[in-house]
Amino acid sequence: MMRHMHHHHHGHGCSCHRCVRQPIVCPPMYRFHDTFKKCEVPVIHPIVNVNRQNVVNVPRHYFTESQRTVPGREIWADSSGPGFGGPGFGGPGFGGPGSFPGGRY
User: Fold this and answer.
1) How many CB atoms are located within 10 Å of the residue 67 CB?
2) Which of 75, 80, 81, 79 shows the shortest CA–CA distance to 95?
3) How far is 84 from 76, CA to CA, in rounded Å?
4) Please, are residues 98 and 92 in contact by the beta-carbon 8 Å criterion?
5) 59 or 3, which is more confident
6) Contact, 92 vs 100, CB < 8 A?
């Protein structure tokens, strides 16, 4: 900001005596007019591709077979007919209807 220097007169309108002082010089004021320019800076982003091999447990069933001979039930054949249990092999008395519920063992 600039100020104009004025001469001051002392007294009652008398211009014969002038009051002249040395000017006061203030420290400078700075005005900044900024401009900007680009300056690229490399930014490196490393990427690591990881191939993961995951194990999935899937059951696989195996069966083993064995045989045992154990004593079963004691069954009496009906002696009223030919063979075991009457008329034919599958009649009453040996696995046929009548000996066991449902005709089964």
Assistant:
1) 4
2) 75
3) 9
4) yes
5) 59
6) no
Three-state SS for the chain is CCCCCCCEECCCCCCCCEECCCCCCCCCCCCCCCCCCCCCCCCCCCCCCCCCCCCCCCCCCCCCCCCCCCCCCCCCCCCCCCCCCCCCCCCCCCCCECCEHHHCC
Q: Identity (one letter) of the amino acid at 100?
A: F
* pLDDT value at 49 more than 90: yes
Structure tokens at 60: 């696989």
Q: Name the amino acid, one letter, at 48.
A: V
Tokens linked to 97: 């209807």
Query: pTM here?
Result: 0.28
